[in-house]
Amino acid sequence: MTDIRSFEGPKEAGFGDFVQLLKPRVMSLVVFTAMVGLLVAPVGLHPVVGFTAILFIALGAGASGALNMWWDADIDAMMRRTKGRPVPAGMVQPGEALAIGLALSGISIVMLALATNMLAGALLAFTIFFYAVVYSMWLKRSTPQNIVIGGAAGAFPPMIGWVAATGSVSVEACLMFMLIFMWTPPHFWALALFMNEDYSKAGVPMLTVTHGKRVTRNHVLGYTLALIPFAIALGFTPIGGPVYLAVSVLLNAEFLRGAYRIWKRDEAAAEADKYKVEKAVFRFSLLYLFLHFGALLVEAVLHAQGMGGW
C-alpha cells in the first residue's frame, strides 16, 4: 500500500518554529542578566527607555540564536539534543534562518544605539559577531577551548545593560561579565559528560571528546575554584551587600561540592547511575546563575530604600 505521507507537501513553519529559531531559553537568561545589569547601575533610566533597551538586547540574542542555527544545522541534525530544532527538522529553511538573523542583528544594534548610547550598540554588535562568527564558525569546531573562549558571548549581556544605563564600563560590569564567563565552562562540561556521545558523533571537539572524561572532570573542579573569587567579589562592590554575599557563599559552597563529586567519580560509577550526579550539577548550575543575579536585584531594591550596602 502506498504511504499517504509520500503525497504530503513540504512542511510549513509555524509561528512557534520561528520563535524556537531565536533560542527562547537562552534568550530568557540573556534578558534576565541584561535587565539586572541595567537595574543595578547607579544611573536610572526612564522605564520606557529601559524596556526598549532590554527589548533590543533580547532581539540581538535572538539574532545570534538564528545565525547559530543556520550555521550549525549540519551538526544539530546529528545530535539528540538538537535534532528537533527548526532548521535540521526542516521546518525553517537555512536561508530563512540566515535572513532573520541578519535582519534582527541590524535592527537590534541600530535601535539600541539610538535608544541608549553608541557604546551599548557597539557592545551588542560585538556580542552577536562573537557568538555567530568567533564561536559558532570558528571555535566550536576547531578547539576544545570552544566554550571557554566562546563563553564571552553569554557574559556580555549584563555589561550591555550596565552600559545602556551609564554609558561606560566599570568594575561592577566587569565582575558581572566574569561571573558568567567563568561559570560557563563547568556548566557546559557537566552537560558534556553525559552528552559526550552526541558531541563525538557530530565531530564537535568538546573537551570530553578530545581529552577524555577524566581530564574534563579535573577541569570542572578547576574552573569552579577559579569562579568562586569572582562571584564573591561582587558582594564587596557598591552593587553588592550582605544579602548577595550570603547567597553567593552558600551557592558557591554547593557548586563546589557538586564539582568535587564530579571530580572524584570514575566512569563506571557514572554510567551505573546514568550520570545522575553530572545531571544534578548541570541543573544546579542554572539555578546558581539565576540566584546570583536575583540577589543583585534584591540588593538594588534595598539600596533604593536605604537599607542595603556596606
Count of DSSP strands = 0
User: What is the fold named in CATH at topology level of the largest domain?
Assistant: Tetracycline Repressor, domain 2
C-alpha-based Rg, rounded: 21 Å
Count helical runs.
14
**Largest β-sheet summary:** none
Poorly predicted regions are: 1-10
Mean pLDDT: 92
Distance linking N and C termini: 77 Å
Percent of residues in helices: over 70%
CATH superfamily of the largest domain: UbiA prenyltransferase
What is the CATH level 1 assignment of the largest domain? Mainly Alpha
At CATH level 2, the architecture of the largest domain is Orthogonal Bundle
List the helices and strands and how they pair.
Blueprint: H1 15-21, H2 24-39, H3 47-71, H4 73-76, H5 94-115, H6 118-142, H7 146-166, H8 171-194, H9 196-202, H10 207-210, H11 213-233, H12 242-264, H13 267-272, H14 276-304
Any overview of this molecule?
With 310 residues, the protein is an all-alpha fold. It has two domains: 15-168, Orthogonal Bundle (Tetracycline Repressor, domain 2); 170-310. Helices cover 75% and strands 0% of the residues. It contains 14 helices and no strands. It has helices at 15-21, 24-39, 47-71, 73-76, 94-115, 118-142, 146-166, 171-194, 196-202, 207-210, 213-233, 242-264, 267-272, 276-304. The chain is flat.
